[in-house]
């Protein structure tokens, strides 16, 4: 549904996109993650035809965005990072406009408004002006303007930024439902647990290009988790610097707890036990998306 | 917490199938943007009401002054034209504001990311604003005719002059809307610019009573051509009305192209309050 190849976009001396490749299939939710300035928002702007790349190709549903941006936009529902609502108009008026621009008419439009409002828990505020809504309600209204037309490609740029748990849950459920209905979803976020909840495939952006792409399981395979132990008498009594084998260089202490980076926690625990250590408590933390993100993009690149 | 309707999973719509983009679809999009912009105009009626009431109050209070200066017939004509040109220039804030608020709310780029064509977007913005400007001018002329006894010998010529002036106002308002960087800047441009253009055009004070240099620069002001077109229409001078209206139409096209180029190149970005 979305296919981008070798996109390049330069702003002055800053290369916002530098060979950006990404494909998203129908029914797939792709989490696009990366530091601020990694190129995520520029990419969304290129896909919607608002920014023209210096090089590369991008198509939506087979329509060349650079050649026919308006035709491509008919296939896209977008929720930009920045709130963009008509604040003096009601929630219903906002949804009516974007639904109508997506091609919905009369009863179908009314039905779609009621449906998306129900999905995103906005039914009670449909008659209120967008300007008087809470932050969470505005976020949901913004997402609703993207979802209302039933677009085959959804571009959701940090849709839950600053949102409360209720907003987050409603949005994630709505996104999952749209993907189940066949929509391709590109979802950018800094809140990585959302991508686990969405069972999204991942695209990690850094310095204007995708540096890793695939399923969460595959990308996290081989990443160390953590073996967390509390020992009798605290860490000092454990003789931390005399741990067996390679454990010493993988270990650290946090709040009196011994934490050992480990790809094989049972083996490391066995090594500790056989060396005579007797933990009071043992906890194994599996690697998560934060670990993956830090492993792939350990720090934000310096701005050009 | 308001009651929320539970949504059944089987009720979630599947991806909508997109057919070809037809002209009825384009017409429907245009209708949607016109309706939406009318709603926006009416939801914040303060500026519109002010631009409708103020000129009538101004005309009611100051027409004796114009009559004393120019005589009963000519004085009423000058008073009506002065009020119409000055307050319609001040109403540029309605046109410019309708574009600038979109930039302040970040909805300008949001709506450009939809399937709407620039022409449809432009019509959606222009038609409600044009209706507001026409209503203002109709009210002023109507008040002049009904209450002050203004003689309009050529109503069709008057309609032509008003129409051409309204188009020029729309073009100027659009340029201000895409160029202004904030609402306060828009306010300054419309208030100060409006007074300068109407004064240079000889609307408030006849050019014959102004310094010589003003008479030389006056034709550069759209306000001058608005006054010329309206004066010619009131005295039934067809050639004079057509000539001045054509110049106003030229201004409308020039300003409209400038605004469209500026907006179409994506150089119009979000603005601040």
Quick structural summary:
The radius of gyration of chain A is 23 Å and the shape is globular. In chain A, 34% of the residues lie in helices and 28% in strands. Chain A has twelve helices and 14 strands.
Characteristics of this structure?
heterodimer; A: 304 residues; alpha/beta; Rossmann fold; Alpha-Beta Plaits; six-stranded mixed sheet; four-stranded antiparallel sheet; 12 helices; 14 strands; globular; B: 273 residues; mainly alpha; 74% helix; 0% strand; elongated
Describe the protein.
The complex is a heterodimer of chains A (304) and B (273). With 304 residues, chain A is of the alpha/beta class. Chain A has helices spanning 40-47, 69-73, 91-101, 106-119, 135-147, 165-180, 193-197, 216-220, 234-237, 247-250, 265-274, 289-296; strands at 2-11, 14-24, 29-33, 55-60, 63-64, 76-79, 153-157, 184-188, 201-206, 209-214, 225-231, 251-254, 257-262, 279-285. Chain A has two domains: 2-220, Rossmann fold (3-Layer(aba) Sandwich); 225-286, Alpha-Beta Plaits, CATH 3.30.70. Chain A has a six-stranded mixed sheet, with helices on both faces. A four-stranded antiparallel sheet of chain A has the order 2-1-4-5. Chain A has a four-stranded antiparallel sheet with strand order 12-13-11-14. In chain A, α3 crosses α4, α3 (91-101) packs parallel to α5 and α5 packs parallel to α6. The longest helix of chain A is centred in the middle third of the chain and has 16 residues, at 165-180. The two termini of chain A are 33 Å apart. In chain B, 74% of the residues lie in helices and 0% in strands. Chain B contains eleven helices and no strands. Chain B has helices at 23-43, 46-70, 72-90, 92-104, 107-112, 118-146, 155-179, 183-200, 212-217, 222-234, 238-264. In chain B, α3 runs antiparallel to α6 and α3 packs antiparallel against α8. Chain B is elongated. Chain B starts with 22 loop residues before the first helix and ends in a 9-residue tail after the last helix. Classes of the chains: A alpha/beta (304), B mainly alpha (273). The interface between A and B is large, with 53 and 41 residues.
């Amino acid at each position: 549904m979305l296919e981008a190849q070798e996109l390049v976009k330069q702003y002055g001396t800053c290369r916002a996109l530098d060979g950006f490749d990404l494909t998203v299939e129908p029914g797939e939710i792709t989490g696009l993650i990366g530091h601020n300035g990694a190129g995520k928002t520029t990419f969304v702007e290129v896909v919607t035809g608002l920014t023209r790349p210096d090089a590369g190709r991008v198509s939506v549903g087979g329509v060349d965005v650079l050649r026919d941006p308006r035709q491509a936009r008919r296939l896209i529902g977008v929720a930009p990072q920045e709130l963009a609502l008509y604040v003096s108009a009601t929630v219903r008026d906002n949804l009516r406009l974007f639904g109508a621009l997506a091609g919905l008419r009369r009863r179908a439009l009314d039905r779609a408004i009621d449906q998306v409002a129900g999905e995103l828990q906005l039914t009670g505020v449909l008659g209120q002006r967008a300007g008087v809504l809470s932050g969470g309600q505005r976020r949901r209204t913004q997402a609703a303007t993207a979802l209302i037309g039933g677009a085959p490609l959804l571009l959701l740029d940090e849709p839950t930024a600053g949102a409360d748990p209720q907003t987050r849950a409603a949005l994630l459920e709505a996104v999952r439902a749209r993907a189940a209905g066949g929509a391709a979803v590109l979802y950018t976020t800094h809140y990585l647990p959302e991508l686990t909840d969405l069972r999204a495939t991942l695209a990690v952006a850094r310095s204007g290009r995708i540096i890793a792409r695939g399923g969460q399981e595959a990308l996290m395979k081989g990443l160390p988790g953590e073996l967390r132990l509390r020992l009798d008498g605290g860490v000092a009594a454990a003789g931390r610097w005399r741990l067996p084998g390679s454990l010493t260089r993988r270990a650290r202490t946090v709040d009196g707890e011994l934490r050992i980076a480990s790809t094989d926690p049972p083996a490391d625990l066995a090594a500790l036990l056989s060396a005579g250590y007797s933990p009071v408590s043992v906890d194994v933390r599996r690697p998560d998306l934060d670990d993956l993100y830090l492993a792939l993009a350990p720090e934000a690149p310096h701005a050009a | 917490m308001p009651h929320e309707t539970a949504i059944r999973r089987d009720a979630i719509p599947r991806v909508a199938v997109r057919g070809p983009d037809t002209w009825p679809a384009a017409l429907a999009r245009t209708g949607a943007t016109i309706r939406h912009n009318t709603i926006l105009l009416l939801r914040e009626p303060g500026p519109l009401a002010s631009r409708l009431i103020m000129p009538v109050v101004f005309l009611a209070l100051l027409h004796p002054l114009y009559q004393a200066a120019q005589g009963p017939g000519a004085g009423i004509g000058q008073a009506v034209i002065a009020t119409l040109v000055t307050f319609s220039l001040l109403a540029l804030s309605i046109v410019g504001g309708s574009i600038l608020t979109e930039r302040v709310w970040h909805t300008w780029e949001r709506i450009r990311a939809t399937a709407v064509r620039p022409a449809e977007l432009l019509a959606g913005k222009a038609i409600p604003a044009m209706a507001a400007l026409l209503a203002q001018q109709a009210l002023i002329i109507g008040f002049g005719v009904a209450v002050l006894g203004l003689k309009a010998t050529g109503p069709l010529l008057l309609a032509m002059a008003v129409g051409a002036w309204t188009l020029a106002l729309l073009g100027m308002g659009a340029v201000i809307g895409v160029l202004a960087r904030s609402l306060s800047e828009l306010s300054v441009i419309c208030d100060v610019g409006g007074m300068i253009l109407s004064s240079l055009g000889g609307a408030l004070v006849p050019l014959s009573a102004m310094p010589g240099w003003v008479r030389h620069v006056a034709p550069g002001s759209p306000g001058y051509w608005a006054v010329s077109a309206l004066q010619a229409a009131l005295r039934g001078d067809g050639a004079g009305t057509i000539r001045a209206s054509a110049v106003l139409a030229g201004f409308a096209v020039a300003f409209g192209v400038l605004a469209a180029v500026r907006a179409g190149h994506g150089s119009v970005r979000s603005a601040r309050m």
